[in-house]
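Dear colleagues,

As part of the handover before I leave the project, I'm documenting each prediction I ran so the next person doesn't have to rerun anything. This entry is a single chain, and its sequence is reproduced below.
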Amino acid sequence: MKRAILLITLSSVTGVAYANGGINNIQGMGSITYAGRHVTAQDKQQAFQKAEQNAVIRYYAEKGDSSTANFSSVQQAVMNNLPNYVLGTSVISQVEHKSLHMYQISLQVQLNTSLLDNALRSASSVGQSPGYKKTQIGFFFVARQIASAKDFSTRRYQRTDTGFQQNLAGGKTNVGEESQNINGGSIGVGSKDRRTEDFSDHTSQTVVSGGSQLRQNTKYKYRLITAQSIKSIFTGDFAQAGFSLVSASQVASRSDNLININEIKNEYRLGRDIKPKTRDDMIKGMQLVQIPYLAIGSMRVGLPITDLNTGLKEITVTVDATMYNVESRFATVIAAVGPEQFSGLGPTQGIALTNAIKNAANKTALDMVSRLNEQSVN
């Protein structure tokens, strides 16, 4: 087990330096059954190697179905050269079930995921094609940060309905009587007058109030970030897999004004995606110059925070990306990534941002290449 002790030391020395720089810590488990009365050092070493191999398999499995499907073509080569991909290990637990003659070990394995990703990209069906035969892919990606946020107060609409009702009722009676009596030379006059008046008044008023409220989402405006690493990473990753990236700016001058780079950038400044018409024009522009595929997307940079474990700055990048097959009249989506988040660490905000963008670009490119391989695109 001397090798294990050496690897643990290496892990403790290099863990922070390589944080989010193409290195991942993945758990792996291995078990063996032994024939003798006790587990031997050779048995333990065999279980140890199985745990390392299991960590590699888990890494590809966590990346999704497309990576797992392509891993089968390079699995044997990776396992035969495992020391090239394992940077360090630490033992989490060891259990010996004597009654079952079974030994189990669980490891924390530090993997060089940059090399593992390269191995997967080399599995591309066009990875060995000469440059002039490589499939071309139109490409447009931007990175952006929030420049301003506009909040809206809640709008309140109120309504009051007033009802008024009055009932009047009354009655009036006048009764008059006169009499005259002539008797013995004398005249007597009499009269009676009786009046009756009844009157009632009822008034009622009803008030009903109501209304509604309108809330609006915060509107963001973004500023675009100049990140040369985005294009270079995508170009390198796709080239290694046998594809040739052609930037949208190169196609724009040959697209009969269908592709307007400034318009595309302005739309990304205002929202998560470009307008459907703008996207359709980009597709038509690619069709005009006979480029069969188009990859477009954006990286939204979050606000920096401090990682509690390391004290380093951490920045998260959210990726939205889509790849279209534009060979036929109507484009079809053949790969979509996101929204998916990737993070980067660094002693300064600038370094953390660079690491986050590199990590996001690498993982996104790998995922898209895997999807292309999955569909036997060449």
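Residues 155-212 form one domain. The chain is about 35% helix and 40% strand.

All the best with the project,
I.
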